[in-house]
Amino acid sequence: MESLLSPVLNRKLLLCAIASFLGFLLLSCSLQRASRPSTAIASLTHLESTSAMADLAGVSVPAPAPQPATAATIYSPPPQSAMEVEMVAASPSELVLAMNSSPGSSQAVHPSPPADGGEETTVEEKKCDIFEGKWVFDRWRYPLYQPHWCPFLSDQVSCRRNGRPDSEYEHWRWQPSGCDLPRYNGREMLEKWRGKRVVIVGDSLNRNMWESLACMLYSSVRKERAVVKQRSSDYKLFRALDYDCSVEFFWSPFLVELKEREDHAKILKLDKIFANGRRWLGADVMIFNTGHWWMHHGKMRAWNYFQRGDQVTEDMEAAVAFNRALRTWARWVDRNVNPRKTIVFFRSISPEHKTENLHFCYNQTKPITNERYVQWFPKSMVDIVERTIRKMTIPVTYLNITRLSEYRRDAHTAIYTSRQGKLLTIEQRLDPTRHADCSHWCLPGLPDTWNVLLFASIMTSSSSIISSTN
Ligand SMILES: *[C@@H]1O[C@H](CO)[C@@H](O)[C@H](O)[C@H]1NC(C)=O
Ligand SMILES: *[C@@H]1O[C@H](CO)[C@@H](O)[C@H](O)[C@H]1NC(C)=O
Protein backbone atom coordinates (compact mmCIF):
# COMPACT_ATOMS: atom_id res chain seq x y z
CA MET A 1 0.00 0.00 0.00
CA GLU A 2 2.73 2.44 1.03
CA SER A 3 4.80 1.81 -2.06
CA LEU A 4 1.76 2.60 -4.16
CA LEU A 5 1.21 5.98 -2.61
CA SER A 6 3.92 8.10 -4.13
CA PRO A 7 3.38 7.03 -7.77
CA VAL A 8 -0.30 7.74 -7.25
CA LEU A 9 0.47 11.18 -5.91
CA ASN A 10 2.88 11.83 -8.76
CA ARG A 11 0.24 10.81 -11.25
CA LYS A 12 -2.19 13.13 -9.54
CA LEU A 13 0.20 16.03 -9.85
CA LEU A 14 0.86 15.24 -13.47
CA LEU A 15 -2.82 15.03 -14.20
CA CYS A 16 -3.50 18.27 -12.43
CA ALA A 17 -0.76 19.95 -14.42
CA ILE A 18 -2.24 18.73 -17.69
CA ALA A 19 -5.69 19.71 -16.57
CA SER A 20 -4.77 23.27 -15.67
CA PHE A 21 -2.80 23.57 -18.88
CA LEU A 22 -5.95 22.77 -20.75
CA GLY A 23 -7.75 25.35 -18.67
CA PHE A 24 -10.45 23.21 -17.22
CA LEU A 25 -10.94 20.50 -14.58
CA LEU A 26 -9.81 23.05 -12.06
CA LEU A 27 -12.19 22.05 -9.35
CA SER A 28 -11.03 18.46 -9.57
CA CYS A 29 -7.50 19.47 -8.83
CA SER A 30 -8.40 21.55 -5.86
CA LEU A 31 -10.67 18.84 -4.54
CA GLN A 32 -7.91 16.30 -4.92
CA ARG A 33 -5.51 18.53 -3.10
CA ALA A 34 -8.03 18.82 -0.33
CA SER A 35 -8.53 15.10 -0.20
CA ARG A 36 -4.90 14.23 0.26
CA PRO A 37 -4.18 12.74 3.67
CA SER A 38 -3.84 15.63 6.05
CA THR A 39 -0.67 15.95 8.03
CA ALA A 40 -2.19 18.45 10.41
CA ILE A 41 -3.40 15.85 12.86
CA ALA A 42 -0.11 14.67 14.22
CA SER A 43 -1.09 13.08 17.48
CA LEU A 44 -2.20 9.59 16.61
CA THR A 45 -3.88 7.68 19.34
CA HIS A 46 -3.65 4.05 20.06
CA LEU A 47 -6.22 2.10 21.94
CA GLU A 48 -4.52 2.03 25.26
CA SER A 49 -7.18 2.05 27.92
CA THR A 50 -7.57 -1.28 29.60
CA SER A 51 -11.27 -1.52 28.88
CA ALA A 52 -10.64 -0.90 25.23
CA MET A 53 -7.92 -3.52 25.20
CA ALA A 54 -10.30 -6.04 26.71
CA ASP A 55 -12.83 -5.19 24.03
CA LEU A 56 -10.28 -5.91 21.35
CA ALA A 57 -10.15 -9.55 22.30
CA GLY A 58 -13.09 -10.01 20.01
CA VAL A 59 -13.95 -12.59 17.44
CA SER A 60 -12.29 -12.64 14.10
CA VAL A 61 -14.90 -13.24 11.47
CA PRO A 62 -14.00 -15.94 8.95
CA ALA A 63 -13.92 -15.16 5.27
CA PRO A 64 -17.18 -15.83 3.50
CA ALA A 65 -17.25 -18.95 1.36
CA PRO A 66 -16.59 -18.20 -2.32
CA GLN A 67 -19.85 -17.75 -4.14
CA PRO A 68 -20.58 -19.59 -7.36
CA ALA A 69 -20.81 -17.18 -10.25
CA THR A 70 -24.48 -16.97 -11.00
CA ALA A 71 -26.33 -14.42 -13.04
CA ALA A 72 -27.12 -12.54 -9.87
CA THR A 73 -23.46 -12.16 -8.97
CA ILE A 74 -22.17 -10.96 -12.31
CA TYR A 75 -21.53 -7.49 -10.96
CA SER A 76 -20.58 -8.74 -7.52
CA PRO A 77 -17.04 -10.05 -7.85
CA PRO A 78 -15.61 -11.90 -4.85
CA PRO A 79 -13.80 -9.62 -2.39
CA GLN A 80 -10.33 -10.31 -3.78
CA SER A 81 -11.04 -8.92 -7.22
CA ALA A 82 -13.20 -6.23 -5.66
CA MET A 83 -10.04 -4.75 -4.26
CA GLU A 84 -8.60 -4.53 -7.74
CA VAL A 85 -11.76 -2.87 -8.90
CA GLU A 86 -11.42 -0.36 -6.11
CA MET A 87 -7.81 0.31 -6.98
CA VAL A 88 -8.82 1.08 -10.52
CA ALA A 89 -11.65 3.27 -9.38
CA ALA A 90 -9.25 5.19 -7.16
CA SER A 91 -6.96 6.14 -10.00
CA PRO A 92 -6.81 9.93 -10.41
CA SER A 93 -8.28 9.99 -13.89
CA GLU A 94 -11.37 8.17 -12.67
CA LEU A 95 -11.83 10.72 -9.94
CA VAL A 96 -11.36 13.56 -12.36
CA LEU A 97 -13.94 12.07 -14.65
CA ALA A 98 -16.34 11.38 -11.82
CA MET A 99 -16.10 14.94 -10.64
CA ASN A 100 -16.76 16.43 -14.01
CA SER A 101 -19.36 14.10 -15.39
CA SER A 102 -22.30 15.92 -13.89
CA PRO A 103 -23.70 18.97 -15.58
CA GLY A 104 -24.44 20.26 -12.09
CA SER A 105 -20.77 20.37 -11.21
CA SER A 106 -20.27 23.49 -13.27
CA GLN A 107 -22.20 25.38 -10.63
CA ALA A 108 -19.46 24.70 -8.16
CA VAL A 109 -16.77 26.31 -10.24
CA HIS A 110 -16.74 29.93 -11.25
CA PRO A 111 -13.55 30.77 -13.07
CA SER A 112 -13.24 34.50 -12.76
CA PRO A 113 -12.06 36.56 -15.77
CA PRO A 114 -8.28 36.85 -16.06
CA ALA A 115 -7.01 39.70 -13.96
CA ASP A 116 -5.23 42.49 -15.89
CA GLY A 117 -5.31 40.38 -19.01
CA GLY A 118 -2.89 37.92 -17.42
CA GLU A 119 -2.74 34.28 -18.33
CA GLU A 120 -3.66 32.97 -14.93
CA THR A 121 -7.20 32.25 -13.97
CA THR A 122 -8.30 31.89 -10.41
CA VAL A 123 -10.97 29.58 -9.19
CA GLU A 124 -13.60 30.77 -6.85
CA GLU A 125 -15.06 27.76 -5.18
CA LYS A 126 -18.65 28.07 -4.14
CA LYS A 127 -19.54 25.86 -1.24
CA CYS A 128 -21.55 22.89 -2.38
CA ASP A 129 -24.24 21.59 -0.03
CA ILE A 130 -23.78 17.86 -0.48
CA PHE A 131 -27.06 17.19 1.33
CA GLU A 132 -29.08 19.02 -1.29
CA GLY A 133 -29.82 16.98 -4.39
CA LYS A 134 -31.70 13.98 -5.70
CA TRP A 135 -31.60 10.20 -5.91
CA VAL A 136 -30.52 8.66 -9.19
CA PHE A 137 -30.80 5.01 -10.08
CA ASP A 138 -27.32 3.54 -10.53
CA ARG A 139 -27.42 -0.18 -11.13
CA TRP A 140 -23.65 -0.51 -11.65
CA ARG A 141 -22.06 1.48 -8.91
CA TYR A 142 -24.50 0.62 -6.12
CA PRO A 143 -24.69 -1.26 -3.81
CA LEU A 144 -21.12 -0.65 -2.63
CA TYR A 145 -20.81 -4.20 -1.27
CA GLN A 146 -22.60 -7.48 -1.35
CA PRO A 147 -24.22 -8.52 1.92
CA HIS A 148 -22.51 -11.93 1.90
CA TRP A 149 -19.14 -10.15 2.07
CA CYS A 150 -20.08 -9.13 5.60
CA PRO A 151 -21.41 -12.22 7.35
CA PHE A 152 -21.61 -10.26 10.59
CA LEU A 153 -24.48 -8.04 9.39
CA SER A 154 -27.30 -8.54 11.88
CA ASP A 155 -30.68 -10.11 11.18
CA GLN A 156 -32.27 -6.75 11.87
CA VAL A 157 -30.83 -5.21 8.70
CA SER A 158 -30.23 -8.19 6.40
CA CYS A 159 -33.28 -7.74 4.22
CA ARG A 160 -32.09 -9.93 1.36
CA ARG A 161 -31.20 -12.79 3.70
CA ASN A 162 -34.60 -12.38 5.32
CA GLY A 163 -36.36 -12.83 2.00
CA ARG A 164 -37.01 -9.33 0.70
CA PRO A 165 -37.89 -10.07 -2.95
CA ASP A 166 -37.07 -6.70 -4.60
CA SER A 167 -33.60 -5.16 -4.71
CA GLU A 168 -33.94 -1.84 -6.55
CA TYR A 169 -33.70 -0.03 -3.23
CA GLU A 170 -30.00 -1.02 -3.13
CA HIS A 171 -29.16 0.80 -6.34
CA TRP A 172 -29.91 4.43 -5.65
CA ARG A 173 -27.06 6.92 -5.55
CA TRP A 174 -27.29 10.34 -3.93
CA GLN A 175 -26.47 13.10 -6.41
CA PRO A 176 -25.92 16.56 -4.89
CA SER A 177 -27.17 19.33 -7.15
CA GLY A 178 -24.08 21.53 -6.93
CA CYS A 179 -21.24 19.02 -7.29
CA ASP A 180 -20.37 15.34 -7.43
CA LEU A 181 -19.44 13.28 -4.40
CA PRO A 182 -15.98 11.75 -4.37
CA ARG A 183 -16.23 8.08 -5.20
CA TYR A 184 -16.20 6.04 -2.02
CA ASN A 185 -13.03 4.04 -1.51
CA GLY A 186 -12.62 1.97 1.65
CA ARG A 187 -8.83 1.90 1.46
CA GLU A 188 -8.61 5.67 1.19
CA MET A 189 -10.88 5.97 4.19
CA LEU A 190 -8.75 3.53 6.17
CA GLU A 191 -5.56 5.27 5.08
CA LYS A 192 -7.01 8.54 6.33
CA TRP A 193 -7.91 6.80 9.57
CA ARG A 194 -4.60 4.99 10.04
CA GLY A 195 -3.83 4.79 13.76
CA LYS A 196 -7.14 6.42 14.60
CA ARG A 197 -10.16 5.62 16.68
CA VAL A 198 -13.65 6.41 15.47
CA VAL A 199 -16.62 6.25 17.85
CA ILE A 200 -20.26 6.29 16.87
CA VAL A 201 -22.57 7.11 19.76
CA GLY A 202 -26.34 7.14 19.80
CA ASP A 203 -29.43 5.03 19.30
CA SER A 204 -30.13 2.01 17.11
CA LEU A 205 -30.10 4.20 13.98
CA ASN A 206 -26.48 4.98 14.69
CA ARG A 207 -25.97 1.26 15.20
CA ASN A 208 -27.45 0.88 11.73
CA MET A 209 -24.84 3.39 10.53
CA TRP A 210 -22.06 1.51 12.33
CA GLU A 211 -23.08 -1.79 10.70
CA SER A 212 -22.99 -0.10 7.33
CA LEU A 213 -19.59 1.52 7.93
CA ALA A 214 -18.10 -1.66 9.39
CA CYS A 215 -19.20 -3.57 6.29
CA MET A 216 -17.96 -0.86 3.91
CA LEU A 217 -14.52 -0.97 5.53
CA TYR A 218 -14.47 -4.74 6.03
CA SER A 219 -15.00 -5.16 2.28
CA SER A 220 -11.66 -3.39 1.71
CA VAL A 221 -9.39 -5.47 3.94
CA ARG A 222 -8.27 -9.08 4.07
CA LYS A 223 -10.75 -10.91 6.24
CA GLU A 224 -8.12 -12.38 8.55
CA ARG A 225 -6.82 -8.86 9.18
CA ALA A 226 -10.15 -7.63 10.53
CA VAL A 227 -11.68 -8.01 13.95
CA VAL A 228 -15.40 -7.66 14.43
CA LYS A 229 -16.90 -7.80 17.85
CA GLN A 230 -20.58 -7.37 18.06
CA ARG A 231 -22.10 -9.78 20.50
CA SER A 232 -23.62 -7.04 22.59
CA SER A 233 -26.12 -4.64 21.06
CA ASP A 234 -24.78 -1.84 23.31
CA TYR A 235 -21.20 -2.00 22.13
CA LYS A 236 -19.70 -2.99 18.80
CA LEU A 237 -16.22 -2.87 17.40
CA PHE A 238 -14.65 -3.14 13.98
CA ARG A 239 -10.91 -3.12 13.79
CA ALA A 240 -8.65 -3.10 10.73
CA LEU A 241 -5.38 -4.51 12.07
CA ASP A 242 -3.17 -3.36 9.18
CA TYR A 243 -4.34 0.21 9.64
CA ASP A 244 -4.41 0.19 13.44
CA CYS A 245 -7.87 1.68 13.07
CA SER A 246 -10.99 0.92 15.03
CA VAL A 247 -14.60 1.96 14.63
CA GLU A 248 -16.73 1.49 17.73
CA PHE A 249 -20.41 1.88 18.47
CA PHE A 250 -21.71 2.91 21.87
CA TRP A 251 -25.42 2.69 22.49
CA SER A 252 -26.69 5.80 24.23
CA PRO A 253 -30.11 6.78 22.91
CA PHE A 254 -30.48 10.00 24.93
CA LEU A 255 -26.78 10.91 25.22
CA VAL A 256 -27.67 11.77 28.84
CA GLU A 257 -28.06 9.25 31.60
CA LEU A 258 -31.08 7.03 32.20
CA LYS A 259 -30.97 5.49 35.63
CA GLU A 260 -33.26 3.03 37.34
CA ARG A 261 -34.08 3.89 40.93
CA GLU A 262 -34.50 1.30 43.68
CA ASP A 263 -38.27 1.44 43.23
CA HIS A 264 -37.65 0.69 39.52
CA ALA A 265 -38.72 4.15 38.45
CA LYS A 266 -36.57 5.25 35.53
CA ILE A 267 -35.01 8.67 35.83
CA LEU A 268 -33.72 10.56 32.85
CA LYS A 269 -30.97 12.80 34.19
CA LEU A 270 -30.94 15.81 31.92
CA ASP A 271 -27.81 17.32 33.46
CA LYS A 272 -25.62 14.25 33.33
CA ILE A 273 -23.85 12.77 30.32
CA PHE A 274 -24.42 9.05 29.68
CA ALA A 275 -22.66 6.74 32.12
CA ASN A 276 -20.11 5.39 29.65
CA GLY A 277 -19.20 8.84 28.32
CA ARG A 278 -15.66 8.43 29.60
CA ARG A 279 -15.16 5.62 27.11
CA TRP A 280 -15.91 7.91 24.16
CA LEU A 281 -12.97 10.11 25.10
CA GLY A 282 -9.74 9.99 23.17
CA ALA A 283 -11.44 9.26 19.87
CA ASP A 284 -10.20 11.03 16.75
CA VAL A 285 -13.62 11.05 15.13
CA MET A 286 -16.92 11.16 17.04
CA ILE A 287 -20.34 10.77 15.43
CA PHE A 288 -23.35 11.43 17.63
CA ASN A 289 -27.10 11.26 17.23
CA THR A 290 -30.19 11.40 19.41
CA GLY A 291 -33.84 12.21 18.80
CA HIS A 292 -36.19 9.29 18.40
CA TRP A 293 -36.31 8.20 21.99
CA TRP A 294 -37.44 11.65 23.09
CA MET A 295 -40.57 11.25 20.98
CA HIS A 296 -41.70 7.94 22.40
CA HIS A 297 -45.08 7.89 24.09
CA GLY A 298 -47.00 5.46 26.26
CA LYS A 299 -45.50 1.99 26.58
CA MET A 300 -42.52 2.97 24.44
CA ARG A 301 -41.50 5.81 26.73
CA ALA A 302 -38.27 4.81 28.43
CA TRP A 303 -38.44 7.17 31.41
CA ASN A 304 -40.84 7.80 34.28
CA TYR A 305 -39.31 11.05 35.53
CA PHE A 306 -36.97 13.76 34.41
CA GLN A 307 -34.34 15.01 36.76
CA ARG A 308 -32.60 18.34 36.54
CA GLY A 309 -30.34 19.31 39.38
CA ASP A 310 -31.99 17.83 42.45
CA GLN A 311 -35.45 18.31 41.08
CA VAL A 312 -37.38 15.26 39.91
CA THR A 313 -40.42 15.97 37.80
CA GLU A 314 -42.87 14.10 35.65
CA ASP A 315 -44.21 16.87 33.55
CA MET A 316 -41.87 18.61 31.24
CA GLU A 317 -42.41 18.99 27.54
CA ALA A 318 -40.29 16.64 25.47
CA ALA A 319 -38.84 19.57 23.56
CA VAL A 320 -37.78 21.33 26.75
CA ALA A 321 -36.17 18.19 28.11
CA PHE A 322 -34.50 17.50 24.76
CA ASN A 323 -33.08 21.01 24.66
CA ARG A 324 -31.68 20.70 28.14
CA ALA A 325 -30.13 17.30 27.45
CA LEU A 326 -28.54 18.51 24.24
CA ARG A 327 -27.04 21.44 26.07
CA THR A 328 -25.59 18.98 28.59
CA TRP A 329 -24.07 17.04 25.70
CA ALA A 330 -22.76 20.24 24.06
CA ARG A 331 -21.14 21.37 27.30
CA TRP A 332 -19.55 17.94 27.71
CA VAL A 333 -18.11 18.07 24.19
CA ASP A 334 -16.88 21.65 24.65
CA ARG A 335 -15.11 20.71 27.87
CA ASN A 336 -13.70 17.32 26.97
CA VAL A 337 -12.92 17.33 23.28
CA ASN A 338 -9.67 18.68 21.89
CA PRO A 339 -10.57 20.20 18.52
CA ARG A 340 -6.98 19.86 17.29
CA LYS A 341 -7.23 16.11 17.68
CA THR A 342 -10.89 15.24 17.26
CA ILE A 343 -13.46 15.86 14.56
CA VAL A 344 -17.03 15.85 15.88
CA PHE A 345 -20.06 15.01 13.77
CA PHE A 346 -23.73 15.11 14.62
CA ARG A 347 -26.00 13.05 12.41
CA SER A 348 -29.41 14.63 11.98
CA ILE A 349 -32.73 12.87 12.60
CA SER A 350 -33.37 9.73 10.56
CA PRO A 351 -36.97 9.87 9.35
CA GLU A 352 -39.58 7.15 9.76
CA HIS A 353 -42.26 6.17 7.28
CA LYS A 354 -45.20 5.16 9.38
CA THR A 355 -48.80 5.76 8.50
CA GLU A 356 -48.72 9.05 10.45
CA ASN A 357 -46.23 10.34 7.89
CA LEU A 358 -48.67 9.56 5.08
CA HIS A 359 -46.20 7.11 3.64
CA PHE A 360 -46.21 3.65 5.10
CA CYS A 361 -42.96 1.87 4.28
CA TYR A 362 -44.54 -1.54 3.77
CA ASN A 363 -44.48 -2.82 0.18
CA GLN A 364 -42.70 0.30 -1.11
CA THR A 365 -40.15 -0.24 -3.85
CA LYS A 366 -39.51 3.31 -5.11
CA PRO A 367 -38.26 6.50 -3.44
CA ILE A 368 -40.61 9.44 -3.09
CA THR A 369 -40.00 11.89 -5.93
CA ASN A 370 -42.40 14.61 -4.85
CA GLU A 371 -40.03 17.33 -3.68
CA ARG A 372 -42.75 18.95 -1.65
CA TYR A 373 -43.18 15.89 0.53
CA VAL A 374 -42.68 16.90 4.13
CA GLN A 375 -42.38 14.73 7.14
CA TRP A 376 -44.20 14.55 10.33
CA PHE A 377 -41.12 14.75 12.53
CA PRO A 378 -41.37 18.01 14.48
CA LYS A 379 -39.27 20.74 12.98
CA SER A 380 -38.85 22.18 16.46
CA MET A 381 -36.69 19.21 17.49
CA VAL A 382 -34.49 19.67 14.44
CA ASP A 383 -34.20 23.39 15.23
CA ILE A 384 -33.08 22.60 18.77
CA VAL A 385 -30.26 20.42 17.44
CA GLU A 386 -29.12 22.99 14.88
CA ARG A 387 -29.31 25.85 17.37
CA THR A 388 -27.39 23.94 20.04
CA ILE A 389 -24.60 22.99 17.65
CA ARG A 390 -24.27 26.54 16.40
CA LYS A 391 -23.68 27.81 19.93
CA MET A 392 -20.86 25.38 20.67
CA THR A 393 -17.20 26.33 20.97
CA ILE A 394 -16.03 23.13 19.31
CA PRO A 395 -16.92 23.07 15.61
CA VAL A 396 -19.36 20.28 14.87
CA THR A 397 -19.97 18.98 11.37
CA TYR A 398 -23.64 18.37 10.82
CA LEU A 399 -24.48 15.33 8.71
CA ASN A 400 -27.76 16.72 7.48
CA ILE A 401 -29.26 13.48 6.18
CA THR A 402 -32.88 14.03 7.22
CA ARG A 403 -34.20 15.41 3.97
CA LEU A 404 -32.44 12.97 1.66
CA SER A 405 -33.59 10.07 3.81
CA GLU A 406 -37.18 11.30 3.82
CA TYR A 407 -37.43 10.38 0.15
CA ARG A 408 -36.45 6.78 0.92
CA ARG A 409 -39.67 5.17 2.11
CA ASP A 410 -38.56 2.14 0.04
CA ALA A 411 -35.36 1.55 2.02
CA HIS A 412 -36.73 0.43 5.41
CA THR A 413 -36.47 -3.11 6.69
CA ALA A 414 -40.29 -3.32 6.97
CA ILE A 415 -41.19 -6.99 7.54
CA TYR A 416 -37.77 -8.40 6.56
CA THR A 417 -36.30 -7.90 9.98
CA SER A 418 -36.08 -9.17 13.53
CA ARG A 419 -37.54 -7.97 16.80
CA GLN A 420 -35.88 -8.69 20.13
CA GLY A 421 -33.41 -10.92 18.33
CA LYS A 422 -36.03 -13.07 16.57
CA LEU A 423 -36.95 -12.94 12.90
CA LEU A 424 -40.56 -11.98 12.33
CA THR A 425 -42.80 -15.01 12.04
CA ILE A 426 -44.99 -15.62 8.98
CA GLU A 427 -48.04 -14.53 10.99
CA GLN A 428 -46.32 -11.30 11.98
CA ARG A 429 -45.32 -10.64 8.38
CA LEU A 430 -48.92 -10.97 7.37
CA ASP A 431 -49.80 -8.16 9.74
CA PRO A 432 -47.49 -5.36 8.58
CA THR A 433 -49.47 -2.52 10.13
CA ARG A 434 -48.51 -3.93 13.52
CA HIS A 435 -45.12 -5.45 12.81
CA ALA A 436 -43.37 -3.66 9.95
CA ASP A 437 -40.29 -1.70 11.05
CA CYS A 438 -40.38 1.64 9.27
CA SER A 439 -37.52 3.19 11.27
CA HIS A 440 -34.46 1.06 10.56
CA TRP A 441 -32.92 0.57 7.14
CA CYS A 442 -31.88 -2.43 5.05
CA LEU A 443 -28.19 -3.06 4.39
CA PRO A 444 -26.86 -2.64 1.81
CA GLY A 445 -28.96 0.50 1.63
CA LEU A 446 -29.52 4.03 2.75
CA PRO A 447 -27.02 4.23 5.67
CA ASP A 448 -24.26 3.44 3.15
CA THR A 449 -25.04 6.84 1.65
CA TRP A 450 -24.78 8.49 5.07
CA ASN A 451 -21.29 6.99 5.25
CA VAL A 452 -20.45 8.11 1.72
CA LEU A 453 -21.36 11.62 2.88
CA LEU A 454 -19.17 11.11 5.94
CA PHE A 455 -16.38 10.03 3.57
CA ALA A 456 -16.97 13.14 1.45
CA SER A 457 -16.89 15.34 4.54
CA ILE A 458 -13.64 13.81 5.69
CA MET A 459 -11.93 13.77 2.29
CA THR A 460 -12.97 17.21 1.08
CA SER A 461 -13.95 20.42 2.73
CA SER A 462 -17.35 20.54 1.09
CA SER A 463 -19.30 19.54 4.18
CA SER A 464 -21.66 22.02 5.72
CA ILE A 465 -20.10 22.92 8.99
CA ILE A 466 -22.20 24.78 11.44
CA SER A 467 -19.45 26.86 12.82
CA SER A 468 -19.31 28.30 16.26
CA THR A 469 -20.07 31.94 16.88
CA ASN A 470 -16.52 32.96 17.70
C1 LIG B 1 -47.83 -5.55 -2.00
O1 LIG B 1 -47.32 -5.59 -3.32
C2 LIG B 1 -47.66 -6.74 -4.05
C3 LIG B 1 -46.94 -6.68 -5.38
O2 LIG B 1 -47.04 -5.43 -5.97
C4 LIG B 1 -49.18 -6.82 -4.20
O3 LIG B 1 -49.53 -8.00 -4.86
C5 LIG B 1 -49.82 -6.82 -2.82
O4 LIG B 1 -51.22 -6.77 -2.92
C6 LIG B 1 -49.33 -5.62 -2.01
N1 LIG B 1 -49.85 -5.72 -0.68
C7 LIG B 1 -50.45 -4.72 -0.05
C8 LIG B 1 -50.98 -5.02 1.31
O5 LIG B 1 -50.55 -3.61 -0.52
C1 LIG C 1 -30.53 20.72 6.62
O1 LIG C 1 -31.27 20.41 5.48
C2 LIG C 1 -32.53 21.02 5.44
C3 LIG C 1 -33.28 20.49 4.24
O2 LIG C 1 -32.50 20.43 3.11
C4 LIG C 1 -32.38 22.54 5.40
O3 LIG C 1 -33.63 23.15 5.38
C5 LIG C 1 -31.62 22.96 6.63
O4 LIG C 1 -31.37 24.33 6.60
C6 LIG C 1 -30.29 22.22 6.71
N1 LIG C 1 -29.65 22.57 7.95
C7 LIG C 1 -28.43 23.07 8.04
C8 LIG C 1 -27.97 23.45 9.37
O5 LIG C 1 -27.70 23.19 7.08
From TrEMBL:
Localization of this protein: Golgi apparatus membrane
Domain Trichome birefringence-like C-terminal: 181-456
GO CC annotation terms, alphabetical: Golgi membrane
UniProt KW keywords: Golgi apparatus, Membrane, Signal-anchor, Transmembrane, Transmembrane helix
InterPro entries xrefs: TBL, TBL_C, TBL_N
Location (main, coarse): Golgi
Region described as Disordered: spans on this chain: 100-125
Topology within the bilayer: Single-pass type II membrane protein
Residue stretches of biased makeup (Polar residues): 100-109
Molecular-function GO terms, alphabetical: xylan O-acetyltransferase activity
Residue ranges constituting the Trichome birefringence-like N-terminal domain according to the UniProt record: 126-180
Transmembrane is among the record's keywords: yes
Highest taxon of the lineage: Eukaryota
Family: Belongs to the PC-esterase family. TBL subfamily.
PANTHER family linked to this entry: OS01G0614300 PROTEIN, PROTEIN TRICHOME BIREFRINGENCE-LIKE 9-RELATED
Descriptive protein name: Trichome birefringence-like N-terminal domain-containing protein
